[in-house]
Amino acid sequence: MTRWLLWTLAGLLLGGIVHLSTILVLPRTATQDAYARLSAITPVNAVAPIPTPTPTAAVLPFMDPAFAVAVCRYDLSENPLKLTAPVSQAYTSVSFYTRYGVAYYAITDRAAGRRQIELELMTAAQRARLPEDEEVTAADRLIVESPTVTGLVVLRALSPEPGAMPLARGVLAAAQCRPNPPES
């Protein structure tokens, strides 16, 4: 009886280890993650609109048809990025994700408190190279540190009714995501 109980416990322990390691490794080995899907249809360091989801097809899973969506697939290996996005009348959000889909920062139009969301995206090393004696205060300049060199910035604008979707798409079309070389 004790031997049978030990074998059962060992089997459960081994099953738990295999299950946890699979759950932790699978996102890194998936070939059709969001970044891979978007690299086929979006340029690097530029804002590109995402097609509206239909009942049979969507570029990304769980897309809400009430939102216009645009993506900036970024690469910070050369320079930091400057992101500007006008806010819509209903709701606008900007979310930042690493290459592997880990969300690390988000801001909405309500938090921005302005007619435009404006920020700089850079790595920790690029931020360390910024001059410390700048006259620009932290309140005047929003800097987001990316934990990875590549990733995604997802911009969403709400269309409260179907007839307002062109307005929401127009807001995202005015957004910019461009390299911001350091000043010399």
In short:
The protein is α+β, with helices and mostly antiparallel strands and 184 residues long. It is built from five helices and nine strands, in the order ααβββββαβαββαβ.
Helices and strands in order, then pairings?
Blueprint: H1 2-29, H2 34-39, E1 47-49, E2 67-75, E3 81-86, E4 92-98, E5 103-108, H3 109-112, E6 116-123, H4 124-128, E7 143-146, E8 150-158, H5 165-173, E9 176-179
Any overview of this molecule?
It is a single chain. The protein is α+β, with helices and mostly antiparallel strands and 184 residues long. The protein has two domains: 1-30; 34-179, Immunoglobulin-like (Sandwich), CATH 2.60.40. The protein contains five helices and nine strands; from the N terminus they run ααβββββαβαββαβ. The strands form two sheets. The chain has a five-stranded antiparallel sheet. The protein starts with a helix and ends in a 5-residue tail after the last strand. The mean pLDDT is 86.
